Structure formats: structure tokens, C-alpha cells
Amino acid sequence: MTKIAFIGAGSWGTATAALVARKNEYETVLWARRSELAETINLYHENPQYLPDLELPDSLLATSELDEALTGAEVVVLGVPSHGFRSVLRDVAAIVGNGPRYVSLTKGLEVDTRKRMSEVIKEEVGGITDAQVAILTGPNLAKEIVRGFPAATTVACKDTETAEFLQDIFHAPTFRCYTNNDVVGCEIGGAFKNIIAIAAGMADGLGYGDNTKATVMTRGLAEMARFSVLFGAQPLTFLGLAGVGDLIATCASPQSRNHHVGIELGKGRKIDEIIGAMNMVAEGVKTCKPILELGREKGCYMPITENVVKICHEGASVEDVVMDLLGREIRSEFEGVEEFLKIVPEI
């Protein structure tokens, strides 16, 4: 039986591990940093800190011993926040090296290096190939997946055989898994949509209506498109689950951490206060700054990202940001997204 090791027992790491374990086709092991959390999952089949009141399958084994989780694993699934991703990966690579296939669940960039998680994997795992590195991403709110609500996701890998192998692992009766070969685009979509979700949340926190949120989401998608094509992403990716699909879920759902941060900012709370009260990571707060830096180096027009950075990292007020966005020069709606227009006849 193929062994799948899930590294990181946060909400999404636990949810994907539960999804695979419930199929009873794989040996599924979940690594938790804290031994008491691993014991709780094994004894009571729940993760009360991250997925309270949701039952996990009996077949899911949890452990706080990294060796136990990884020994014999053919697939390593990394559900670790971006700021701790590299350090955990180093420990993983020291045990299993480049033997397994690696799958990242993380939707963010490493702040200091501004690198995507697939790039971090290739740096830290000596001798690993593109065919061993994949991304799982899409409109996947963890609680809904555990409850078995119908949903879909994308597994992205440059190697078709690996993508299809992983597709079989993650696909379930209520969880449709599609393949994609655009790793860059899928990672950018997963990171960028968190920034737009903060902006959409601010609109909600300010008491604005659905027109405002639709405007933020649509212009945010255009901003994502302008940015992505400069880094080699395939435009069509952003019309799929990793793009507009994930954007809709993250901007609209009260379960979204980034949307929550935006709402609280719109209500006038300070970013440090909001983050301090959360027990989970809102990746958009960290990711917005390196994405803006990368965009500026390429000359990309990014007004929403720029203003999210001003609020989260420079102490600007939400009211000032709204006035800045509304006061900007009006433009052609599709300026800077010509690459999208080239694919319209093919759809």
C-alpha cells in the first residue's frame, strides 16, 4: 500500500490528510509538531484547534515523530506556512532526500527570498527533478472539504505522469481533482488571491455593498493577470480553479482568514492586533510585500497590492487607501492583460 506523509497538522494539512485517509486506499500519516495534538487526533479523531467539531477518519494516523511519518513514504505533502516551510523541509529532506514526490499545499511566497514553494523545494532537496514537485491548489476551504461538501482542486506538475498519479490520490467522490502543467501560474494564483481577499474584506468591513466587492475581485483578477504573465504563467490558468475559482472562495467566504483580516481592518482595527488574536496564518499579510517588490521590478501596475501593503506594513489608514484607489487615473479595462485576450478565441 502506497504511503502518503502529510507534514503539518493545521487546518488544510489535516483536511487533505483526512480526505485521502477516508478512501482507505493508502497508508496515510499526518505529522503534528505537538505530541498532544497527535495524541488527540489518534484517540478522539478530531483536531480541536484547527477543525473543531469535525470528525476525522479512524484510518488517519497522526504522529509527532518525523521519522515515523516519513519512513517509506512515496509522497510527501507539505502543509506548512510559508515562513516555516524551508526549515521544516530541511528536516524532511534530511530523512527522505529526493526519493519521494513532494506536494506543496502552501499558498504564499517566502518573504526574504521572494520565492515560490516549488523553488524552495528544488533548492533544499538535492537532486530533485521537476517531475517530483507538484502543487495542490484551488477553492478549497478546509472545513467544507472535511464535511464532504462538493468541491474541486488542481494538482499542478510539469510532468504529466506525476500529475495524473497525484490526481488519483487526491480525487474523491465529492472532491474532483484536475491536472495542470502550469506550476508557476498555480502558485502565483494561490498567493495573489490572498492579497485581493484582504482588500475585499476591507470593503465588507467598511460596510460597502456587493458592487464594491465585485469591483475589487474583478480588478484584482486583472492585477493578478498583469503580474503573472511577466513571470511565465499561462493566462488560461487564471480562468480556472487556481485563479478565479480560488479568488471567489477566498474573497467571499467568512471561513477565509485573509478575508477576515480585511474585514477587521475595515472596521478600524490595527493589523498587529488582528494577527495576534488569530491562531492560524493569513498568508496574504506576509505575501503582499514580496509580490509588490517583484511586480515593481518588472514595472507592473498593481494598485490594489500596493495599498494592501501600505495598510499591512506602512501604517496607512483604510480611508486613505480607498481615496487613493478611487482617485487614480482611469484606464482601459484590459490594459496590461493582452495575453488573456489572445486565448479568448480558443475557449
Structure description:
This protein is an alpha/beta fold and 347 residues long. It folds into two domains: 3-181, NAD(P)-binding Rossmann-like Domain (Rossmann fold, 3-Layer(aba) Sandwich), CATH 3.40.50; 184-346, Orthogonal Bundle (N-(1-d-carboxylethyl)-l-norvaline Dehydrogenase, domain 2). The protein is 52% helix and 11% strand. It has 16 helices and eight strands. It has helices spanning 11-21, 35-44, 66-70, 82-96, 117-124, 142-147, 160-170, 183-205, 210-229, 241-252, 257-266, 271-276, 283-297, 303-314, 318-326, 338-343, and strands at 3-7, 27-31, 61-63, 75-78, 101-104, 133-137, 151-156, 175-180. An eight-stranded mixed β-sheet has the order 3-2-1-4-5-6-7-8, sandwiched between helices. Helix 4 packs parallel to helix 5 (117-124), helix 8 runs parallel beside helix 11 and helix 13 crosses helix 14. The chain is globular. The N and C termini lie far apart (40 Å). The model has no long low-confidence stretch (mean pLDDT 93).
Concise overview:
It contains 16 helices and eight strands. The chain has 347 residues and is of the alpha/beta class. 49% of the residues are buried.
